[in-house]
Amino acid sequence: MRKLIEFDDDTFDKLKQLGRDRMATLQELADEAFADLLKKHGIPIDLKDALRRSARLQEATRPQDAAKPRTTAANAARKRGRKR
Question: What distance in Å separates the CA atoms of residue 32 and residue 26, rounded to the nearest whole number?
C-alpha cells in the first residue's frame, strides 16, 4: 500500500543523510521508525509478536500454584502424609 508523507526540506535532507550513513533506504528508515512507534504504544507489529504477547499475558494471569510444577520429593511427602 502506498501513502504519501510530506517532510520539510531540512528533515528530508537529514533523513537522506542518515540513510546514506547507515546504508539504508528511506523506506527502511520509515519501517524502523513506525515499528518503534507501535512498540512504544504496545501494539503488536506482526502475528509473531501478537502471539508472544498473548502467551505472556496468559502466563501472567495463571495462578502461582499452577505455574510451578511440584517436585517428586514434594509429591512423595504429600503421599506419605495421606497414608497415615
Answer: 10
How would you label 46-67 residue by residue, b for 16+ Cβ within 10 Å and e otherwise?
A: eeeeeeeeeeeeeeeeeeeeee
> In this structure, what C-alpha cell is assigned to residue 39?
512498540
**25-42 tens-digit pLDDT:** 999 999 999 999 999 998
Handedness of CA 48, 52, 57, 62 (dihedral sign): positive
pTM of the predicted model, to two decimals? 0.59
* Cell numbers for 56: 505472556
Q: What is the DSSP string of 38-51?
A: HHHTT--SSHHHHH
The CA distance from 15 to 29, in Å, is 8
